[in-house]
Amino acid sequence: MITTLTIVRYPRFLGWAGFLSMAFFRIPLWLSPSIYFWKLMGCGKNGTFDKTPDWQQWALLIVHKDSNNIKREIPSFIVAWWNLFNCEKWSLTMEPLEGHGLWDGKTAFGTIPNQKDYDGPIGILTRATIRLGKLRSFWQHVDGVAAQMANAPGFVTSVGIGEVPWIKQATFSIWTSKELMKQFAYQMKEHAEIVKKTRKENWYSEDMFVRFKIIESTGNLQGKLPFQIKP
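Above: the chain sequence. Below: its structure as tokens.
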């Protein structure tokens, strides 16, 4: 199913409008007949799992029912709200390629086709609901890996998103290729050790991992387009 991820940044001192939007946007999203799944989320400050929220930056993920039409409409009330507060908007249109896991007990992206042969730029969504008893262990190990990811070959950009601070967390990252992403994920010692710990110590009550083909990237975030698709 075609998915859009929109990262919105409010002007300084207007972060309160982003906070209010988390309540107001639910109504048009609930009422839209063309939306299969949606999530309103906050953002972390450092582009990955982060305990410190960025009150200026917020995220909206929508999975659309109609997979035949690449262009997707966000409910007009939401767009008008963003324009009213002069928000910066970076929007990605994507197609899921392969993945596993549930999001709040749902197959959020429908039946994923498992296209392993794609070799272009790739978006990665990693999310988890962290068990309350494992919060300390999780946060003790995350910061070091996040710092190394930013310098990894093939890394382009990332954003930390989440529904509940500290507990329901996600990272969306973009890489120049799946191969370079896999080198970071499986060959970097610290990251490999954390993957082992999550399984051995059962950190998560729910987790999800999805790879996306990025169809379109438009808009600006902090004055620039974070990722541009090459013709």
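The first helix runs from residue 15 to 24.
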